[in-house]
């Protein structure tokens, strides 16, 4: 855990963008999500959500303890607040599934793969390799009668089935996933800033790039103005 400096007797908070704050909380401090209890458990005994408990503790000036998942070790209180905020991602942004994805990516120090540089290319669906090299596979798609040297003959019509690799939908799906993750991080950042419960960390306005594939496309177009973008 990094030290927090002081300037003129006032604590200087550590400024982090939301992605860096998430990686600090989940990767460095090993904070854990507060997952909902199993469905077969009764509701008695946990009538208040974690956010309510954190708010009450903040109002009373109490520090957040290490949490039930960190027995025998210490997790920074700010990291617990960040984890609690991620746990509250609303269903409209992916809910618990997105919360787990955000935490897993942060713990691994990764950004969702939006398939940078991917361009769909039309290629043979199947190929085979022999001593002459790699060749596209063909298949019979019909039979035609042709007149050859005065005689009618039946000739098979061959075609090479093709496909797109990577498929445009695969690229689109990867980029939708990135955009969903970005929206979730934006919600978490707003929640942490509005909550004002972080004591030693200040979440800044810095965010990951919005739709970086558009930036990459514009950059490519500037470098090669005559190129056709797919």
Show unreliable segments. 42-50, 60-69
What is the domain total for the residues?
2
For the biggest sheet, the summary is:
2 strands, antiparallel
Q: State the end-to-end CA separation.
A: 46 Å
Helix content: 25-40%
Structural class: alpha+beta
Q: Could you give the count of β-strands?
A: 10
What's the overall average pLDDT, rounded? 81
SSE string, helix = H, strand = E? EEEHHHHEEEEEEHEH
Cα radius of gyration in angstroms: 28 Å
Task: Please specify the SSE layout and strand pairing.
Layout: E1 6-7, E2 10-11, E3 14-16, H1 18-28, H2 50-60, H3 77-87, H4 95-108, E4 121-124, E5 127-130, E6 133-136, E7 139-148, E8 151-159, E9 162-165, H5 168-195, E10 201-203, H6 212-223
Helix pairs in contact: 1-3, 1-4, 4-5
Explain how this protein is built.
The structure is a single chain. This protein is of the alpha+beta class. The protein has 2 domains: 6-115 and 168-223, no CATH class; 121-165, no CATH class. It contains 6 helices and 10 strands. The strands form 5 sheets. The chain has a two-stranded antiparallel sheet. A two-stranded parallel sheet has the order 3-10. The protein has a two-stranded antiparallel ribbon with strand order 4-9. The longest helix has 28 residues, at 168-195.
Structure in a nutshell:
With 230 residues, the chain is of the alpha+beta class. Helices cover 38% and strands 20% of the residues. The chain has two domains: 6-115 and 168-223, no CATH class; 121-165, no CATH class.
